[in-house]
Amino acid sequence: MTQDCSRLKFVSAFFFFPMRSLLRRIGLRYDISRIANAYYRAKFDRIPAAEKAVILPHCLIGEKCKARFSKEDGVLCVNCKDCRCGEIRLLCEEAGWQFYISPSTNFTKRLVQRKGIRAAIGAACDFEIEKGIRSTRITLRGVRLQQKKVIPQVIVTARYDCLNNDIDWELLHRMIRDGAGGV
Ligand code: SF4
Known about the structure:
Bound molecules: iron/sulfur cluster
Number of domains: 1
Number of helices: 7
Distance between the termini: 15 Å
Number of strands: 8
Order of helices and strands: HHHEEEHEHEHEEEH
Strand order of the largest sheet: 4-1-5-8-7-6
Radius of gyration: 16 Å
């Protein structure tokens, strides 16, 4: 897809966002995360590894999680293997990326600011994504979180659930291993 075509698709997707229910009812496929990921992908890949991060939501951690919580860095995963966050942490370390598990959206915004993150893969449910679109400044150059512009890639969680949630972990593996082009 050419850059112009990708940009047009991106702008249209956000323009039609308030009409998404209607579009779905008349059978039009409307997946705003997929369109935004595709548009930002090349920009994401150009950011140096040290300024990239995976920031996962706490709804993905295991019930018997052994991690401590740090006000500075969020949930400090020790790879106890009660969930798959630990393997992602190791993958990020190998790739030279930062890795965090965040307890809230506001915490994530502060992390981005404090840790010099310029591109991030996050996971969120449909509800949080819609809330984010309504409350965040989204531009062709990235998403503005507080004073910082970040290039996002988003994975939608399996459910709207703050406990025992799930994502497509293999997709996340590919996104880290092969760059965002692994999608
Ligand atoms: S792997 Fe990490 S995040 Fe998952 S349950 Fe264990 S310590 Fe917690």
